[in-house]
Amino acid sequence: MIEFRFKREHELWRKACREFVRDEIVPMIKPDEKGPGHGTFDWPIVKKMAKQGFFGVPFPREYGGAGLGEVGYCMVLEELAAAEASLGTTIGAHTGIGTMPIWLFGTEEQRQRYLPQLCSGERIAAFCLTEPTAGSDAASIKTRAVKDKDEWVLNGTKIWVTNGKEAEVYTVMAVTDPALGAQGGVTSFIVEKGAAGMNFGTIEDKMGIRNSSTAEIIFENCRIPDENRLGPVGEGFITALTALDGGRVGLGAGALGGIKQLRDACVRLARHKVVDGQPLGEHQSIQWKLADMAMEAFFAEFAIYDTATMVDAYHDHIAHREKVPRALREEVSRRAAMIKAHTSEVLGRSVEWALEVFGSDGILDQWTIEKAFRDEPILEIFEGTNEIQRVIIARELLKEDPL
Amino acid sequence: MKVLVLVSQVPAKLEFARLDKRTGRLEFEPERLLNPVDVHVLSEAVRLKEEHGATFELLAASSEANEDAVREALAYGAAGALVLTGPHVGGADGVGLGVAFAAAIRHLGKFDAILLAASSPAPEWGLVAGSLADALEMPLVVDAAHLRPGPKWTCESALGRDRWGVEVQGAVVATISDRVPKRHPTAWGVVDAVHRTIVTKPLHELDADGTLLPRLAARAVLKRQSLERKAKAETETFADDPEDGARLVARRLKNKGLWPEASR
Predict the structure, then answer these.
(1) In sequence order, what are the residues at sequence separation of 6 or more whose Cβ sits closer than 8 angstroms to the Cβ of residue A35?
(2) Is the Cβ pair A72, B187 closer than 8 Å?
(3) What is the complex's ipTM, to 2 decimals?
(4) Mutating which of A5, A12, A47 best tests the B interface, going by the most B Cβ atoms within 10 A?
(5) Which candidate in A88, A213, A358, B71 could, as Cys together with A81 as Cys, close a disulfide (CB 3.0–4.6 Å)?
């Protein structure tokens, strides 16, 4: 029999997190004004979240984090996403893929130098992998890093950088040996805002998650000291994929928060709205939708938090420079892909179910459904499209020999 | 500056309340949460810590294990916690509890301020502050907010519909208003709370001269009788279906906002 229980600190953290978001964040959230423009990256909210410790949840105490691991991090994303998907996106990009590689693969000097400020939210991190000609096929990135004495010279363009212009520390993947390709030819670097030759391009105007920042970053002969190289030369692709595994579980937690938010909104409406002389919830067609959302949330919750504990073990091995058991690495990677693809698609279906429950009210601005409809699609795309997740899952399956 | 915060507990899930037909008393699941009104007191202590460098500790009393409630309070950044235990605690009325807290505070040492909730779902709580201040011979400020240390403590205090500026010489006992804005535990506070040691002390160990427990025992009998009368009345009211009766009581308290929301 499988039994999953949260640790005491996680139970306390869940409650603290939920009440903080409800009492202090929700009242501050501004509408994500639609129309031309790129939304508002809300610094007052970000600073409030930082003071609460939201930016360093999974990282060890000695580097300024809270030490609550991937489980605590997933809780933050779940609670934030239920309130405003953009905030979950900001924290996710900072923590899961921006800062995590520095903890996992950084030297002790790099950890001491960057993590305290990143954990306190004094500085925000971002992750630069995608390029105009390398999205799902991340292995074909073109940004080059060429060694010049004690420096590396970066040239290339990164797009879809979440926290783009607001971040100050960037984890950047670049090709150091084109002949070797992704396996051995990519290296990661820590680039600080203000580095000569680093410039911002387009600030994206998005349909959803409009209160998060998404930017294009252009490197033109950008010189980075070798001490900012993150991990060994040629292992940058491993750095990226490892960060993305944990990030995808967090992304699933964000989707779970969205599913629960929609479920709760539908339940409230079904209890109070009267149609044809009886509460909406008395209609079987409505009950089925509520039940579907509840079932999906239940199973997603178990899968996410059970996998989050596995991610913690996985990260501990890497951070302590221990050999990661192959079975653990593969299991985390496969589960993360399944969680990301499944929960984001369930969220998409939940938006449709909620629209059916709300009827024409659902398309009005005043309800959460309209915003969820705009916020949801990106979850099926970023940190690896769901098609790519399916490729990862299938490859893992085919590797196994059931006979 | 040392501050002491008195905290209490409430049942975590009122939905599971039952009336015990044999004893006629309301029974709850053993899980306990921090009393929601204490959040305002803890928030005032956090403000004193942030703005004036205060450290604060917790004092609670419980006849049953209430570690969860105390840990929740510790997560606000308290340096430590003492829980008074023993059979007399559960039956003590407000005056008796104040006397017991005073004995514990003498044991703990000197504090510049002793803070507790101005209101509580438990009716006897209203007597605790007065009894405590009297036993410690300290001034009492009621329904206070915005405490500021200095040569004298200053704060706002509400009496009836009016608000007053209050100055107090020396250490003070203050009941904290629920007007104080709520704060929430930080991620670091939560982790610290789990690793802090909660000290428990049987009440009889504080009764060095043998005068405390007899006073509490006498009051405890009185209180038990009063509780039993009250529970009997509830039983009679809901005699047909005690379980539904308990739910009604639960809902009534919940509607008054006296209990935290059930978890999602």
Answers:
(1) none
(2) yes
(3) 0.90
(4) A12
(5) A88
